[in-house]
Specification:
- By secondary structure, the protein is mainly alpha-helical.
- It has three domains: 133 residues, no CATH class; 62 residues, no CATH class; 87 residues, His-Me finger endonuclease fold.
- Helices cover 47% and strands 6% of the residues.
- It is built from twelve helices and four strands, in the order H-H-H-H-H-H-H-E-E-H-H-H-H-E-E-H.
- Strands 1-2 form a two-stranded antiparallel ribbon. Strands 3-4 form a two-stranded antiparallel sheet.
- Helix 4 crosses helix 6 and helix 5 packs across helix 6.
- It is globular and about 70 Å long.
- The chain binds zinc ion (ZN) (2 copies).
- One zinc ion binds next to strand 4 and helix 12.
- One zinc ion (ZN) binds next to loops.
Length: 300
């Protein structure tokens, strides 16, 4: 059995205050994982003064207007978030036990960051405090059955009984309804109301602990069929649909309405002469799709 997590005794807020510069920004309604990602972006900005990188060159060659560079950048930062949190959890499991004096885990985490990164000491201290907050929410116990049902009702009242990812109606089958962490719990997502949404079983399992669109395997999403082909729905599998909805943050790309209010999203191409691939696919609502087709027919 796993040892009790000491971090649980402190609130996220207490831990964040320790990190210099975070006292003014700290807020209970923010995911520690998100704070870690924002901080990494600050430490490693997308703009560098080293001139064109290989990825900027590919972006330029494929006329991606910066979208490919941004995608690779976001995906890499997500990798760093996952790597730091999971490495810290690995060290915690190893050093936070009766075999080691109290505080060994944080010491080990500090020496790991000092030897394996080139960040400055004050930044390393900030990273340590944010990571502790991430592990604190990650290792929080599951809610009681009662609290879970209460949450379900509360979210249902606020957003309606629709899966926030695919828009499927959840009203009929009670068993189908899952409470989903929008920012994954394992990667520093809070279990408080602001980070919870309702989803269907299959979207919940496809989404797993992916953070956002750039976190899925976007490089796999390159179809060889067209919408009019029989194989299209087979090729655009469930995981890809979830990834493409995540790309627009579960909103219609055009009217920006969230899935719970605009219903099921459908997928369209930006450039109809190009194939169906991650950068060329947008998720839009039925309403926007209809007005698009109307205006196209009107022009034609
Ligand atoms: Zn769903
Ligand atoms: Zn729309």
């Amino acid at each position: 059995m796993l040892e009790e997590n000491n971090l649980k005794k402190e609130s996220v807020q207490d831990i964040l205050i320790e990190g210099e510069g975070y006292s003014s920004e700290c807020n209970e309604d923010i995911n520690p994982g998100l704070i870690l990602r924002d901080f990494l972006q600050k430490l490693c900005p997308i703009q560098s003064d080293t001139g064109l990188s290989f990825i900027s060159q590919i972006d330029y060659s494929f006329k991606a207007d910066g979208a490919l560079s941004e995608l690779v950048y976001k995906s890499t930062i997500n990798y760093l978030v996952r790597r730091l949190i999971n490495t810290a959890e690995y060290l915690r499991r190893r050093y936070e036990s009766d075999d080691f004096p109290e505080g060994t885990f944080v010491q080990e985490l500090r020496s790991y960051l000092k030897s394996e990164t080139r960040f400055r000491d004050p930044d390393i201290e900030k990273i340590i405090s944010i990571i502790q907050a991430c592990l604190s929410v990650r290792n929080q116990r599951r809610k009681s059955r009662q609290a879970f049902v209460k949450h379900k009702k509360q979210i249902g009242r606020a957003y309606g009984l629709l899966c926030y990812i695919c828009g499927k109606s959840l009203s009929s089958e009670e068993e189908e309804i899952q409470v989903e962490h929008n920012w994954p719990k394992a990667l520093g997502g809070s279990s408080k109301y602001f980070n919870l949404r309702l989803s269907c079983k299959s979207c919940n399992s496809e989404k797993g602990s992916y953070i956002d669109g750039s976190d899925f395997h976007y490089e796999h999403i390159c179809l060889s069929t067209d919408e009019t082909n029989d194989g299209f729905n087979h090729e655009l599998k469930g995981l890809y649909r979830v990834a493409l909805s995540a790309k627009s943050n579960y909103r219609c790309t055009l009217c920006e309405g969230d899935v719970e209010s605009v219903g099921r999203l459908r997928f369209v191409r930006r450039n109809p002469n190009d194939s169906w691939h991650y950068l060329n696919i947008d998720a839009i609502c039925e309403g926007c799709f209809e007005s698009l087709s109307l205006s196209e027919n009107g022009n034609g």
